[in-house]
Every structure is written in structure tokens, then in C-alpha cells.
Design brief:
Helix content is 45%, strand content 21%. Helix 2 links the parallel strand 1 and strand 2. The protein has 160 residues and is α/β, with parallel strands linked by helices. It is built from 6 helices and 5 strands, in the order H-E-H-E-H-H-H-E-E-E-H. It has a 5-stranded mixed β-sheet, sandwiched between helices. The protein has one domain: CinA-like (Maf protein).
């Protein structure tokens, strides 16, 4: 995936570390990262936090956030990204949470709704997406956009 390669090159050139917190992508981001030789110096750690309990336990997502907004929300994505960044002591935390389908959607939170959060340089940027296609296609689209968000955030808020 070209988005992953572009992001990997940026991590290498800037000497940055990254940590992943994945729900709906189920490890796709981490899997792409480890395709690049030398990534062990840049990929701190990754979590697949599919359950709410795992989000609270491993990423310090607040139970109140999950009760008020749900697992698939801007607030949860932001807390996941910040939580994994802090836990791993990484430069970047990237997180995904969403509804990949084909079931589980509602009128308020339809299938394909994904929030992606990126914590970097004292900021947390969250983007909301609505993807279509199969469960796999939604997950793949989310992983691609996660790499784009990392790249865009580092370029925007980095020292360059």
C-alpha cells in the first residue's frame, strides 16, 4: 500500500516512532508497518483493542466517554490515539475505531463509519469517514486513511 510506504519513509527520515491502537482495522496498520525493513527502530508497539474493556485497560480511554459517546466516536478515537502514544512513549499515536459491517450499524452510526485519530507534537487530530464496500474494503480504506493522517499530521505540525 503506497500510503504505508510514504509514511514509513517519513518515519525513517525524521527518526520518529509510532504506536498503533486499532479496533475496526484489527491490526492492518501494524501489519503494513512491519513490511518495511528497519521498522523495528520506529514501530514502538501496537494494540488491537476490539472491546471497550481493552480500550479502557490498555489505552486509558475513559469509561465515561464510552458511555456518553460510544466506542465509535471522535472522542474515543482521540483518547485511543493519545493513550497509545503515551503508553508506548512514541512520537506518534494512531488509532482507528469504526463499524466495518455488514452488521452493527444504526441510523446514527451506519456501517462504514470510521473515526481515525492521530496524536503528535502535543496535538490530536481526528477525522471522520464514511466508507462503503465489504467489511474488508471498509477496514482497508480505514488503514489507508490512517497512514495518510499520520503523514499529513507530521508534515503539518512537524519541524519541517
Amino acid at each position: 500500500m503506497k500510503q504505508a510506504e510514504r509514511t514509513a519513509k517519513l518515519l525513517f527520515s525524521d527518526g520518529l516512532t509510532i504506536a498503533t491502537a486499532e479496533s475496526c482495522t484489527g491490526g492492518m496498520i501494524a501489519s503494513e508497518l512491519v513490511n518495511f525493513s528497519g521498522m523495528s527502530a520506529h514501530f514502538a508497539e501496537g494494540y488491537v483493542t476490539y472491546s471497550n474493556e481493552a480500550k479502557v485497560k490498555n489505552l486509558s480511554v475513559k469509561e465515561e466517554t464510552l458511555k456518553k459517546y460510544g466506542a465509535v466516536s471522535e472522542d474515543t478515537a482521540a483518547q485511543m490515539a493519545l493513550g497509545v502514544q503515551k503508553r508506548a512513549n512514541a512520537d506518534i499515536g494512531i488509532a482507528t475505531t469504526g463499524i466495518a459491517g455488514p452488521d452493527g450499524g444504526t441510523d446514527e452510526k451506519p456501517v462504514g463509519l470510521v473515526y481515525i485519530g492521530c496524536a503528535y507534537a502535543g496535538r490530536v487530530v481526528v477525522r471522520k469517514y464514511r466508507f462503503s464496500g465489504s467489511r474488508y474494503q471498509v477496514r482497508l480504506s480505514a488503514a489507508k486513511r490512517a497512514f495518510e493522517l499520520v503523514y499529513d499530521t507530521v508534515v503539518r505540525f512537524g519541524d519541517k
